[in-house]
Specification:
The protein is mostly beta strands. About 15% of the residues lie in helices and about 40% in strands. The two termini are about 30 Å apart. About 30% of the residues are buried.
């Protein structure tokens, strides 16, 4: 299974967490304060709370529900109700391979994450969620004179994450035009659903 784009690097600054989705797997993608990128199953091993609702605390992600902390190595580092306890090594999250390339965050559920598209000559533009199937979104060609690349990642049958890039040489006005065209396209596609 190839890696999927789950967002732009600039949309996940240090100390933040975001929800993501790849091939039916809900994910918590987060960046530690020092910049380490991680992609985990979006369920706390303690009570199943979505880790994407949690908070980054230095080099750990803390679950919102009971505050359990999980370090970048995915092991539990702190159980707040038992602060003197060293958590057993068996308490850990399920991790997936994640990497950044071309300003895009890629996640693979199996093996090492590798970009599924060659993004040479393109720079990040925008990530948008369409409330439509991947088939309904289809191939996006917004501007003939400024090539735009669209990386589609279905979130179930009714939503698609669209990560777009534009030619590195595109001027600011072309970037604005492409962003407006994307919004128009989203409205058109969603109106047909």
């Amino acid at each position: 299974m190839s890696a999927k784009a789950v967002g732009l690097s600039r949309d996940l600054p240090a100390g933040r967490v975001m929800p993501a989705h790849v091939a039916g797997q809900d994910l918590a993608v987060w960046r530690s304060v020092s910049g380490v990128l991680s992609a985990w199953d979006n369920r706390c091993p303690h009570r199943g709370m979505a880790l994407s609702h949690g908070f980054v605390r230095g080099e750990a992600l803390a679950c919102l529900y009971h505050g359990w902390h999980f370090g970048c190595d995915r092991h539990c580092t702190l159980i707040p109700s038992h602060p003197d306890l060293t958590p057993p090594e068996t308490i850990q999250t399920r991790a997936f391979s994640a990497l950044e390339d071309g300003g895009v965050i890629w996640v693979a559920l199996e093996g090492e994450a590798q970009p599924s598209d060659d993004l040479n000559g393109f720079k990040p533009l925008r990530t948008m969620q369409f409330h439509a199937s991947e088939d309904a979104v289809g191939t996006i060609n917004i501007l003939a004179d400024q090539p735009v690349r669209a990386l589609l990642n279905p979130w179930g049958e009714t939503r698609t994450l669209v990560t777009t890039l534009i030619a590195e040489t595109a001027p600011i006005q072309a970037m604005k035009d492409a962003t407006l065209a994307l919004e128009s396209l989203r409205q058109q596609v969603e109106a047909r659903q």
